[in-house]
Write a structure and sequence with these properties.
This protein has a five-stranded parallel sheet, sandwiched between helices. It has four helices and five strands; from the N terminus they run E-H-E-H-E-H-E-H-E. Helices cover 25% and strands 17% of the residues. The chain has helices spanning 21-29, 54-59, 81-89, 106-115; strands at 7-12, 34-39, 64-67, 93-96, 119-121. Helix 3 runs parallel beside helix 4 (106-115). The chain is an alpha/beta fold.
């Protein structure tokens, strides 16, 4: 599993910095791979990257929009679908570590197929891993 760099951190409408802990970690440990952050109205999180629109990120060569929020329940709110679909239409792949799969959202899956983009659900591996035997 690989994600095209650089990344646009999608913070959605996170209530605080803790809710954006995934983006915080990537921005801290891989800042060189991060292009900017996209915050929806009402977002109170900030990972210290430049605020960018999807169009600005695409023009700057963004490869992947990373859903950097870890919300209660690990779901993708329905109002996030439009920016996710817009990122796919702009040529970005989209990655998420939430419990709900991007591939289970019909409009998102259809947009990825239509635009030839990848949906990367990092919490759900596509291969088997051996069980540890400590």
């Amino acid at each position: 599993m690989s994600m095209r760099m650089p990344y646009l951190m999608f913070l959605g409408d996170a209530a605080d910095d803790l809710a954006a802990k995934t983006a915080q970690g990537v921005a801290h440990w891989r800042r060189e791979a991060c292009l900017g952050q996209l915050r929806l109205p009402g977002c109170k999180a900030d990972v210290g990257l430049p605020d960018m629109t999807i169009a600005e990120a695409a023009k700057a060569g963004c490869g992947t929009m990373l859903v950097g929020v870890a919300n209660s329940g690990g779901f993708i709110p329905s109002h996030w679908s439009d920016p996710i679909v817009a990122a796919l239409a702009a040529g970005m792949d989209v990655a998420s570590g939430l419990h709900q799969r991007l591939t289970d959202l019909p409009d998102v899956a259809a947009a990825a197929k239509r635009h030839g983009r990848a949906l990367i659900d990092v919490r759900h591996p596509t291969r088997e891993f051996p069980t540890g035997k400590g």
